[in-house]
């Protein structure tokens, strides 16, 4: 029987569901509170695009649903999508300790523990969704374990 429960160490957040985005309209996801975590994976799931192009950027805020500010100087585009690189899964790692406030206020500067994504379709037909997975919990046991939709294996407790 396993004594280690990995669900104590990560949190999954769907920033926004897979959808077709309108051209020229930036779409913000739902922010996630990163307090107590050191790392995040941003999973950008791009579907079949009918000629759509767009970009993925990251933002932070001190309040969920607050005013989100671009992350980094000029908020660099992390992924650019076109018809030639659609139907793909893009995964990026974010070290939350280097965000303003150190990912939940553990570092220096103003605490901005909420991480969000901004996707902008530059032309119509961009289909995508974004999921954020927080991991490396600094406070194991502080948060409710991540609920599983399924589990496989005889030795999983």
Please describe what this structure looks like.
- The protein has 157 residues and is mainly beta.
- The chain has a single domain (6-137), classed as Sandwich (Jelly Rolls), CATH 2.60.120.1110.
- It contains no helices and ten strands.
- The strands form two sheets. Strands 2, 3, 5, 6, 7 and 9 form a six-stranded antiparallel sheet that branches.
- Strand 5 and strand 6 form a beta hairpin.
- The chain is globular.
- The termini are close together.
- Mean pLDDT is 75; it is low at 102-110.
Layout of helices and strands:
Layout lengths: L9 E12 L4 E3 L3 E2 L3 E10 L6 E9 L7 E2 L8 E3 L6 E8 L18 E10 L2 E12 L20
Antiparallel strand pairs: 1-10, 2-9, 3-9, 4-8, 4-10, 5-6, 5-7, 5-9
């Amino acid at each position: 029987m396993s004594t280690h429960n990995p669900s104590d160490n990560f949190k999954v957040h769907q920033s926004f569901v897979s959808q077709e985005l309108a051209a020229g309209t930036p779409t913000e996801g739902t922010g996630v509170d990163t307090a107590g975590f050191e790392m995040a994976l941003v999973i950008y799931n791009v579907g079949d695009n009918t000629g759509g192009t767009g970009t993925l950027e990251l933002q932070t805020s001190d309040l969920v649903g607050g005013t989100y500010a671009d992350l980094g100087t000029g908020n660099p585009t992390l992924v650019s999508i076109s018809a030639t690189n659609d139907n793909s899964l893009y995964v990026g790692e974010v070290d939350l300790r280097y965000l303003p406030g150190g990912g939940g206020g553990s570092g220096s500067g103003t605490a901005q523990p909420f991480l969000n994504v901004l996707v902008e379709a530059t032309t119509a037909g961009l289909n995508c969704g974004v999921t954020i997975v927080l991991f490396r919990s600094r406070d194991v046991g502080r948060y409710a374990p991540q609920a599983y939709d399924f589990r496989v294996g005889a030795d999983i407790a």
